[in-house]
Amino acid sequence: MNHRNYYQILHVQADAPKEVIRSSYRTMMQKLKMHPDLGGNHDDAAVVNEAYKVLMNDTARAQYDAGLSSKQTSKPHAEKTKHPNDTNQPSRKNSYADNKQQCVFCNAPHNMGSNIGPDDICPKCESPVFPAKKQSTKVCDKRTIERINKEWSVKFFHSWPNAQAHTGKTRNVSLNGMQLLTTESLVISQVIKLISNELDVVAIVVNRQLGASEDSVEWSYGLEFVTLRFHQAHGTFISLAI
User: Fold this and answer.
1) How many domains does one find in the chain?
2) Alpha-carbon span 236 to 166, nearest angstrom
3) End residue of a domain, out of 82, 107, 127
4) How far apart are CA 25 and CA 7, in angstroms?
5) Most CB atoms closer than 10 Å: which of 115, 150, 170, 174?
6) Containing domain of residue 227, as a range?
7) Do the domain assignments include residue 107?
8) The CATH number of the domain where 109 resides is what?
9) Residue 151 contacts by C-beta under 8 Å, 6 or more apart in sequence?
């Protein structure tokens, strides 16, 4: 029990309010049918109940947070290995983007090397192959670009070959990544291909959280761009955020 991360068990952030914790708990037990009365595994449900009981009690949660913080301080390397949802870990983006001889998504060789251009795509799966550069937050006369709450309808793929298109929508789009809302289940560090009318990307899932809505089971994923291709001028995209 000392090794369990209750926040990860309930798919919430460490600063999540009780309303979000309660919503996530109900979604897991009812809509995802983890409750034993709905066919769920008794042991799994017991762990979820344990996490919920602690995080909904102010005193118990404070004690748990103190213990969790102490473990993270004394075992920083072990914590990074045990908790892949930790967004403070070094990104895997560079390890993918550094290989300029093959597609990040389908791994097919393209041999473009240093000749890759912003509009180049993989000849096999048509994914963008131009590496997404880490953008500074200061552009255009040093004005700051913040994430824009832009909802775009998108399609995405998480397997190749025999790829199946899934649907979702974006939120909080920036030049470095975006938030993806969908009912499809993805895992941390998974590589996906996403296409829209505005841009095509290959991205890594860096965090996830169950949506707070009780009307449907919806996941919110943080994506970090690995490769990127715009369908319109780069400056046009920037102008949306300024």
Assistant:
1) 2
2) 27
3) 82
4) 11
5) 170
6) 93-240
7) yes
8) 2.40.10.220
9) 169, 170, 171
SS3 content of the chain, % helix, strand, coil (to 5): 30, 25, 45
Measured CA to CA in angstroms, residue 197 lies from 135, 151, 169, 200 at distances of: 22, 12, 12, 8
The CATH number that applies at residue 24 is 1.10.287.110
The reply to whether 161 and 117 lie within a common domain is yes
Residue 1: inside a domain: no
Pull the structure tokens for residue 195.
């296409």
Residue 96 C-beta-side C-alpha neighbours within 13 Å:
26
Domain-ending residue, one of 82, 101, 133: 82
86 contacts 5 by C-beta, under 8 angstroms: no
Classify residue 129: in a domain, yes or no. Answer: yes
Asked if the bond preceding 90 is cis, omega within 30° of 0, the reply is no
How far is the C-alpha of 98 from the C-alpha of 13, rounded, in Å? Answer: 31
- The alpha carbon of residue 168 and the mean position of all alpha carbons in its chain are separated, in whole angstroms, by 13
pLDDT per residue rounded down to tens, the chain (242 residues): 446 789 888 888 888 889 889 888 888 888 778 888 888 888 888 999 999 999 999 999 999 888 887 765 554 443 333 333 333 333 444 555 555 678 888 888 877 767 788 899 998 899 999 988 776 554 444 333 445 667 889 999 987 777 788 999 998 888 889 999 998 878 778 899 999 988 899 999 888 887 655 556 678 899 999 999 988 654 445 444 43
Say whether both 107 and 175 belong to one domain. Answer: yes
Task: Look at the chain and count its residues.
Answer: 242
